[in-house]
């Protein structure tokens, strides 16, 4: 499930929510309960070898 960032158009509260792609039900702001929210996919960084990026970290096999 993707993590989405939302902003409430009524109270300007910013919040995150995990939702299925197939979920089309309205999202309510946890602060004011308004369903007037705007959604955009959350951004995140992945990839790379953790040990090469941070050689001082202990090596772990996953």
Description:
With 62 residues, the protein is mainly β. The chain has a single domain, classed as Rubrerythrin, domain 2 (Single Sheet), CATH 2.20.28. It is built from one helix and three strands; from the N terminus they run βββα. Strands 2-1-3 form a three-stranded antiparallel β-sheet, with no helix packed on it. A hairpin with a 5-residue loop joins β1 and β2 (14-18). The longest helix is centred in the last third of the chain and has 4 residues, at 50-53. The radius of gyration is 17 Å and the shape is globular. The model has no long low-confidence stretch (mean pLDDT 81).
Keywords:
single chain, 62 residues, mainly beta, Rubrerythrin, domain 2, 3-stranded antiparallel beta sheet, 1 helix, 3 strands
Order of SSEs: EEEH
* Helical run tally: 1
CATH class: Mainly Beta
Helix content: under 10%
**Main sheet properties:** 3 strands, antiparallel
- From the coordinates shown, what is the CATH architecture? Single Sheet
Strand order of the largest sheet: 2-1-3
Characterize the overall form.
globular
How many structural units, i.e. domains? 1
Please count the beta strands (DSSP E, at least 2 residues each). Answer: 3
Q: What ranges have pLDDT less than 50 throughout 5 or more consecutive residues? A: none
Query: What portion of the residues fall into strands of 2 or more residues?
Result: 25-35%
CATH topology name:
Rubrerythrin, domain 2
- Structural class category: mainly beta
Rg estimate, integer Å: 17 Å
Arithmetic mean of pLDDT: 81
Distance between the termini: 22 Å
């Amino acid at each position: 499930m993707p993590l989405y960032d939302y902003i409430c158009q009524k109270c300007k509260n910013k919040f995150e929510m995990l939702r299925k792609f197939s979920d089309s039900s309205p999202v309510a702001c946890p602060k004011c309960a308004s369903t007037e929210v705007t959604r955009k996919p959350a951004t995140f960084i992945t990839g790379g070898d953790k040990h090469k990026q941070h050689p001082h970290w202990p090596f772990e096999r996953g």
